[in-house]
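Blinded run. Sample ID left blank on purpose so nobody reads anything into the name before looking at the predicted structure. Input follows.
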Amino acid sequence: MDSLQPQMSDIGVIGLVPDQWQAPWMPRHHVMSRLAKYFRVAWLNPRLSPRDKLDAARLHSSGLEQPQGMQVIQPGCMLAHLGRYDFLRRMLQRQRLKGAARLLSTTGCRRIILYVWRPEFEPALDMISHDLSCYHIDDEYTFADQEQPMSEVEARLLARVNQVFIHSPGLMAKKGGINPNTQYVSNGVDYPAYSFSAPEPDDLAKVPRPRIGYVGYIKRQLDLDLLLALARKHSNWSYVLVGPVNESRLSQEELSVLDSLKKMTNVYFLGGKTVPELPAYVQHMDVCLLPYRVNDYTKFIYPLKLHEYLATGRPVVGSMIRTLKEYADVVRLAADTDDWSDAITDALRPAANAPALVAHRRSVASKYDWNLLVAEIAHTLCLRLGSEYAERFEKLRLDFDSRVHVKSLGASGQSCKLSMRQKV
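Blinded prediction complete.
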């Protein structure tokens, strides 16, 4: 979209999210920020518990401002301190939702969509009138190593909303059969940001090659024991971990392993980075890792880093979890330590960076650009609102495609000055 204003500004979306807008970006940040290209969006920053506040203080800010078309609404001091007073909290939450709807109405919104990202927001469906509701599942919210039954609240939410989006094959199999209006939408990538070259970051430039890298949260779902074993086995490789460490969520045993990793001379913790800084770190790795523990939780995940890694063209080695098995043509899967050692060794060979392989990885990633995925979400929402909105959306998409086509024809007669940025 060329305009900074939403293209269908008479539609308002209220996003009920578990994260602050300025928190490190998760799928909901990518989706809601891009929906703001089409609709007006109100992102409701959640009330933070004392533990959440402690975590937020330790984690790195996204470093991004809210886009045009989006309003970030704070919870207010009373809601933030009500704690266990459920009745008062619900009353203030209702007022807050009504306030968000009024704000959207004053900007010209005639239709309101409730966009829910967690089961605990199910009561919001009864708090304000709305034209459409949807539930976007981007994780297994029990976060348990052993599979748990679906909660009554989530089952009720799935059945009640008008539309469901689910982000992984495992969750689609578990939860996709409840609501007939359920659509599979995977995680994506800001493809231009990751596929075009960026300067090597100063702190990464000090790390010797070869660099074996992981970019993302340092969390309990990572196989820290595996990383420690690999670091001890290959002291000539540099293991680079880029991302915030959420120590409050780690067990004592995991903290002990983390401490051992920090003591290794060939392991580098570079800390959290802003969203615009992250692509450069991935681009300047030699091999990218998705080193997840294999259990009943990780069989449901869809790693946010998957397509970001692939967009750079770098070789990727990952655990044998369900989602990654579907990308075995572009991700080398590994099981035990020896298997991982062999896989990384192969990924470091020149053959792993053959032009055809690099192009194939990028080609796969390009199909999952967030702009493409969110356009499909916006289209689905318009379909659910009715034929008038679906037709308007189709016209917008046709107009946009025609403008792109005209620009392409205009550029074809020039000397291929398509971009000042060169691919990695």
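Unblinding after everyone has recorded impressions. The domain at 11-188+369-400 is CATH 3.40.50.2000 (Rossmann fold).
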